[in-house]
Design goal:
Shape: globular
Order of helices and strands: EEEEHHH
Radius of gyration: 16 Å
Strand content: 25-35%
Oligomer: single chain
Number of helices: 3
Number of strands: 4
Length: 100
């Protein structure tokens, strides 16, 4: 019997300690958001944001929040819900940073 891992071509495989913030809130639209926001050394300072209700995940920085229609598209929500989510996300995502 062959080793199944020998058939895989790993591009990356690393382990890192991270910090995850779990947040639940309700906006004016009465939409409930259940989020996991993970801070990691990867992704150039952006946060890994997971919507625990719909299973959608995105790597987000403030530049992504400013992109028209991006939050709606990534999380599959309407404009009003996206605006409420942006209000929260502006508080937790930082500016992206780039290294050489």
């Amino acid at each position: 019997m062959t080793d199944p891992q020998k058939d895989l071509d790993f591009l990356s495989d690393s382990t890192e300690s991270t910090s995850t913030r779990f947040v639940t809130f309700i906006g004016h639209s009465l939409t409930r958001f259940d989020l996991a926001v993970t801070t990691t050394g990867r992704f150039y300072g952006k946060k890994l944001v997971a919507d625990l209700q719909n299973g959608k995940t995105a790597i987000l920085g403030s530049d992504d929040l400013d992109e028209e229609g991006y939050i709606e598209h990534v999380f599959g929500i309407n404009e009003e819900e996206a605006n409420e989510l942006r209000i929260f996300l502006y508080q937790v995502v930082g500016e992206p940073y780039f290294t050489d």
